[in-house]
Amino acid sequence: MRTVLGFPTRNRRNRPTNINLGLGNFSKFEVGETAVHVGEIDVPIEKFPITFATIRLGPPGILLGLPLECPLPWSAFVRLVADEHRSPFQYGANVARICAVNPFLTAQYLARIAYSYAVSELGYGTFQPLVLDLLKRKGGFFRHWVGGQLSVPPANKLSLHTLEQETVLVGPHKYVVVTLRLFANLGSPIHQVVVGQLDG
């Protein structure tokens, strides 16, 4: 999305002019069918569909009272904005590999946004941070603090991003939770990040 829309980047000289697209074909679109690989093509930026890729999650583990290392599921979520000029299917394929989703890096940037928002709303030092290890890549777990809603609401065409902060009580603990929806206008999922604790 950043590349196609020309968002600011730290390395403008190395901004790509093409994006690689993997192409394939399903013959019947049946459960368990494997697509036949057709090939790969470098598509010019101006012909590449706007793509928003993120992760879809259930509630954060800490809000469910689960231990840190408890495995919780996640799934990739991709929203494609395409038309006859920006379609991945104009190259003789009915399936396309658009992008890769790294769940840890995605959770990390969600936590970074949420933590910054909570600090701006509540003030630095007003709560005990819980996501600093995640932000510093000191652990491989993210589902304990980062989650969301499995059901994806319809697109909100009047809103780009929404962020809200609240205090959630779980047993004796008060947690600072930020709910965010990035690119709500594209029909994206809602995420929750437990950024801190108020009761020490």
Structure explained in plain terms:
The protein is of the alpha+beta class and 200 residues long. It has helices spanning 2-5, 103-122, 132-135, and strands spanning 18-25, 36-44, 50-57, 74-81, 95-97, 128-129, 146-148, 161-170, 173-182, 191-197. It contains three helices and ten strands. The model has no long low-confidence stretch (mean pLDDT 87). It has one domain.
Could you give a short description of this structure?
This protein is α+β, with helices and mostly antiparallel strands and 200 residues long. The protein has 3 helices and 10 strands, in the order αβββββαβαββββ. It has one domain (2-197).
Topology overview:
Elements: H1 2-5, E1 18-25, E2 36-44, E3 50-57, E4 74-81, E5 95-97, H2 103-122, E6 128-129, H3 132-135, E7 146-148, E8 161-170, E9 173-182, E10 191-197
Antiparallel strand pairs: 1-2, 1-5, 3-4, 6-10, 7-10, 8-9, 9-10
